Amino acid sequence: MKLIEIIEALRTNTIQDLLNENSVAIKYDLIDIYAKYSLGIESDYYFFNAKKRPRTNIFEENGIKYENLCSLSKLKDLVCSYANLNAKRTSEILVFDVLDYLENEK
Questions:
Q1: In whole angstroms, how large is the CA radius of gyration of the chain?
Q2: Which helix or strand (DSSP H or E) is residue 44 part of?
Q3: CA distance linking residue 68 with residue 61, whole number of Å
Q4: What is the distance between the alpha carbons of residues 47 and 25, in angstroms, rounded to a whole number?
Q5: CA separation (Å) from 42 to 51, 58, 62, 74, 84?
Q6: Contacts of 28 (CB under 8 A, 6+ apart)
Q7: 54-72, pLDDT tens digit by residue?
Q8: How far apart are the C-alpha atoms of 36 and 68, rounded to whole Å?
Q9: What residues contact residue 35 under an 8 Å CB cut-off, 6+ apart?
Q10: What is this structure's pTM?
Q11: Where are the beta strands (DSSP E) in 7-77?
């Protein structure tokens, strides 16, 4: 799924619906988000269980590289923080804000 879908679900409090629709059976607090190949606006993002996979910046599984974005709970905090700065921020702009913040944090 795209990052904008996750951010939109966090903004509208429908994240549990998104998790259910994608058959994600991981406890909310244990979800780490990884991008397939590398972080980016158009990248596909996947949820992994932090308890089963220790958080690393990059890992490879079945010949595919994944890059860590952050935990789902951290993403929610970031989305809320940026949205509170300016209520008119769109989800598209929040994607840029979040990626910029996390890439500069690393």
A1: 13
A2: none
A3: 13
A4: 10
A5: 27, 18, 21, 20, 25
A6: 15, 16, 19, 72, 73
A7: 778 999 999 999 999 999 9
A8: 9
A9: 3, 43, 44, 45, 46, 66, 67, 69
A10: 0.91
A11: 31-36, 45-49, 58-61, 64-71
